[in-house]
Give the backbone structure.
Amino acid sequence: MKNQLTFLLLLLCSFSLIAQEADETADTLRKDALRVYMDADDFIKREIPFINYVRDLKEAQVYIISTSEQTGSGGREYYFFLVGQNEYEGMRDTVSCTTLPDDTYEQRRQMRVNTLKIALMRYVVKTPLAKHIDISFMQPLKEEVSTDKWDNWVFRTRISGYLNGQKSVKYNNIYGSFTVSRVTEAWKLMFDFYYSYGKDVYDLGEEIVTSENKSKSFEGLVVKSISDHWSVGGSFDMGSSSYSNYQFRFELTPGIEFNIFPYSESTRRQFSFLYSAGFRYNNYEEITIYEKTEENLWMHSLIGTYSIIQKWGSVSISP
């Protein structure tokens, strides 16, 4: 019995020493981990545990700025700007990932985390934790590189409507649209057609009042990048609307834009000026209060936009 108690005490002491050594190893690894300053939620902290999330920017070896913008297909493109400081001074990286419109919330956040993990490897490799990192490739490569058979063209359509009726009133409405877009580094093309029809019927007892409206429009935007700071293009819009008293309207507006910062940095900072001048023709269904059945209008505008996202925060000024 005495020998058994001695054996148990020795076993407990061994477990205690092993646990103490594991804690000391974990503390050492945590102390040597990369210090990162970023706006990280609990999911990121849980999925990327091999860095130290610091609150003081001065203590960070790397700070990360994240931005996003909507893509032409309706998804979002997320950008991460990594800037090294202290012993990592001079190291800068920009990585991005793109989600699809039908991606789930879990898919979107997992994609952002995986992109961050890849971007951090260049910095983590310089720390003692690098020997504990294992990199794997999950998808086999095809022998031939596949290409986009649609050549970046994206097609979207939408149809909606509703019926609502009571004894004294009825509402009917239908709406449809078809959009074609193509966005590349050199071109931005967007064309949209929509149609809307609505009819309201009011039963006032001795009289039935009907309100009917139709609208249709065809819009387009064409922009060509001619340098890292300049782009030219224009937009057009034609259609009709009984609600707005337009039997036919047509608008053509060419323009030119200059961005002080390179367009490659537009998701992080931009200071741009857009000048546009155009022509609009209105043909009215009914005579207006100014006794016009049609008119030609000339117009021009100058719009300035400033926005910047930095480690200290963000500023945005636009009309």
Notes: DSSP finds three helices and 14 strands in the chain. Residues 2-32 form the longest helix (31 residues). The two ends are 87 Å apart (CA to CA). The chain has two domains: 25-132, 153-317.
